[in-house]
Amino acid sequence: MASPLTAEQQAFVSSSLNEVSRTFALGIGLLRQPLRDEVGVAYLICRVLDTIEDTTQIDGAVRAGLLDELGRAIARDERLPAESISRVFQNPSLAGPDIELCRRASLVSDCSAALDKSARAAMRGPVVEMAHGMAETVRAQDGGIRPQNFEELDRYCYFVAGTVGKLLTALYAARRESITPAIRAELERWGVPFGLGLQITNIIKDAVADFTRGVVYMPGCVFDGAAITSALKAPDGALARNAIAKLVGHALTHLRGGLRYTLAVPAAEKDIRLFCALPLMFALRTLHMAATASGSFSATKEVKISRAEVSELSALAEGIATDNARLEKHYNGVEAEIASALAVAGATS
Question: What are the domain boundaries of the chain?
Answer without folding.
Answer: 6-142, 145-349
